[in-house]
Records
---
Amino acid sequence: MSAQQVLELIKEKNIEFVDFRFIDLSGRAHHITVPASEVEAETFENGVAFDGSSISGFRGIEESDMVMMPDTESVYVDPFTAHSTLIVVCNIHTPDGQRYDRDPRSIAHKAEEYLQKSGVGSAAFFAPESEFFIFDDVRYESSMNASSYFVDSEEAAWNTNRKEEGGNSGFKVGVKGGYVPVSPIDAQQDIRSEMVRQLQESGLRVERHHHEVATAGQAEINFRFDTLTKTADNLMKYKYIVHNVARQFGKTATFMPKPLFGDNGSGMHVHQSIFNEGEPLFYEKGGYANLSQMALHYIGGILHHAPALIAITNPSTNSFKRLVPGYEAPVNLVYSKGNRSAAVRIPVAAVTPKGCRIEFRTPDSTANPYLAFSAMLMAGLDGIKRKIDPSALGFGPFDTNIYELSEDQKKEIRSVPGSLDEALDALEADHDFLTEGGVFSKDFIENYVSFKRAEAKAVAIRVHPHEFSLYYDC
């Protein structure tokens, strides 16, 4: 879509405001809204100015002037505003017109350009399965003398004896008992269907939705794959619509990986493949799980660089509350066909040559999608470039339930880092694959590590409520 076509769309839809958005380091969207009457062709040529020093992890106050450059291919009508508003996602430039090397969306573009220049293929396709919880109530506090959180859901297992409902209706979702039940156990069919309707109206192709494994309203909506940057745009749209539809229903949605203790967390399993001019490159009939040698090398790159990757794909302290043994979250750095206990799974059910793909199951939705998808692609391309054989490095294939292996057998399997700090250590030690072709800059890596270290420290130095249970009587 050209700038002129966007201007015509504004007239056709009687748009009153245009919302220009950009994405920060953490993957959160920010916006500046301009009356549609003030949006002209020059707006798309010159961009919209903003203060970069007010965005964490961006610029110092002495170099704060930055510019949002609108991407006319990203537009959609906001379904939630009272006044008709068109959303336009932007790239970030410096005042001299250069792409800003800390802009996540620009990094995604550079990753796609690097793929094309590498000669490996013309496009990488991504499809994230981003899980979330829908709660009725959330409260939390972290202060000098108090620290607490509380979440609640009408369908939660802990509410079988709750009286506040005016007569408990029963049909609660048991712990780990929430995978695809029908109503009345699944009490959120209509909420998810409304989310799907809004997603479809905003341009996404939604494939299905369902209740997920955990109690208390865990859900998943799957939308169709697309190229790297477009999929990251779609995931931002997905989260925006999920959050706001939940609010319309008087509820709250969270993509936090582990909001509940003792039940499954929310992951973001990422399906990915490479094509060249419409031809799939990951398929080879008769290979392991019908994978080509290129696909196996891509897996080798993902698993070899996984400790560093996880600093970007699982970038929160809460991520490592999910990445523990005993749940479906994969902590073991192996690959397998159809096996959900492996970090990399190759789907084999009803898969066509064009649908042949690998699934990296470790990530979660605290990740910035532009950075996470770019990092995964760069790791996979490094595996292809260096012909990294995952089997030769001891990464499998593993076609048994890893959680049922003996302790001695498990010792032979490498695991993901145990904390955000460990993952950041790995990223500091192993990031040359990210800087190939200038996709990620050294400055970006150093700034990102510093930014995330501050988050880890903020959690580490605070008193935890469970410490009172353990130590108060010492």
---
Amino acid sequence: MMSFYLSLVCLLISFFFFLVFFMVSNRFMMDREKSSPFECGFDPENSARIPFSMRFFLLAVIFLVFDLEIVLLIPFVLYVGVSKSFGCLFTGFCFCMILFIGVLYEWWEGSFNWIY
């Protein structure tokens, strides 16, 4: 029964904060600067069809992919230290080789070059 009351209190507190933040945010919605779009340093008063460098986008995607791979690799390194099995070590080596081949492919394709 106690957990029901605790849940009810948490629900009421969160609803109260929702209402307070909703009322405060409506007051600032009419501000022109806050409601105008701002994308990557472009002036929001110009046309939205301004071309941007596709290399910047490609490098950002490459960064996200390899950043995700590193996040997957860190727990694996900790597991290899605990388990010390050959199969786990071989799997980690194959994973690192796939990453290395991906970096070489991106380098060969020229995705890391900013100057043509």
---
Amino acid sequence: MLVLLAFIIVFHITSAALLFVATIDNAWWVGDEFFADVWRICVNNTNCTEIGDGFTDYATMQAVQATMILSTILCCIAFLIFLLQLFRLKQGERFVLTSIIQLLSCLSVLIAASIYTDRRQELHSQNAALYGQTAEGTYGYSFILAWVAFAFTFISGLMYLILRKRK
């Protein structure tokens, strides 16, 4: 049981770390001489512009930002609640509250990555001339980590739903 508990804790911490990196790091869309994320666009690794009101379709980027932050916060809250439930739950009960919060985190990262996937072409092609770059590029590792974090949080949420407290 101790090995299973250690695995679940490490898996949850890994999920949270993936969410932090995907939210913070600047590699959602990368191309020749530029990279972009949900916070800023950088050209030639030196000329960085924050995504703000002048950005076309700024509301979409705010939705992606908000849901990525929400997923990270919910994942951390789920971990803290898991630790509390670990000591408070009676033997044989399930970690339902932890599971619900972790699945909400999963849903939030799914929404963020889906919005970015759907609107990426519009976001970068409309703003390419504005920021002196081309829209040609590929998805970066932070975008991929967001989708991996989705899978990890989903699996983690299901594990908590199935898991019962034992001695």
